[in-house]
Amino acid sequence: MPVLVVHGTEDPHLPFDVQAKVFEARVPHAEFPAVQGGEHVAIFTQRRSVRAKVTEFMQRHFTT
Q1: Is-contact 8 42, C-beta < 8 A?
Q2: How far, rounded to the nearest angstrom, does the alpha carbon of residue 13 sit from its chain's CA centroid?
Q3: What confidence tier does 29 reach under pLDDT thresholds 50, 70, 90?
Q4: Mean pLDDT of all residues in the chain?
Q5: What is the pLDDT of residue 56?
Q6: How far apart are CA 13 and CA 5, in angstroms?
Q7: What does each C-alpha distance from 49 to 1, 3, 7, 8 come to in angstroms?
Q8: What is the pLDDT of residue 1?
């Protein structure tokens, strides 16, 4: 099953460098695009960037 994990590079609660490695180890085939400058709620504050990443992911995995 395709998995997309969106994470901001400036997250003060869950540091990107640490969490990227954790997710890669736990979910080996997950895609983990960085949201440059995004903080903990990057899906809201970086909406345009995140929307583009999600749209591309969805088109690649779920369209025929």
Answers
A1: yes
A2: 15
A3: confident
A4: 91
A5: 95
A6: 16
A7: 23, 18, 11, 11
A8: 86
Task: Assess contact for 42 and 50: CB atoms under 8 A.
Answer: yes
Interacting residues of 61 by C-beta distance below 8 A, sequence separation 6+: 2
At residue 61, the pLDDT reads 93
Give the residue from 7, 10, 19, 5 showing the smallest Cα distance to 37: 10
* Listed residue (9, 32, 11, 35) closest to 22, CA to CA: 32
Tokens 């979910």: give the residue: 27
Closest residue by Cα to residue 60 from 39, 41, 33, 21: 33
20 vs 4: CA distance, rounded Å? 12
Length of the chain in terms of residues written = 64
- Would you call 11 helix, strand, or coil by DSSP? coil
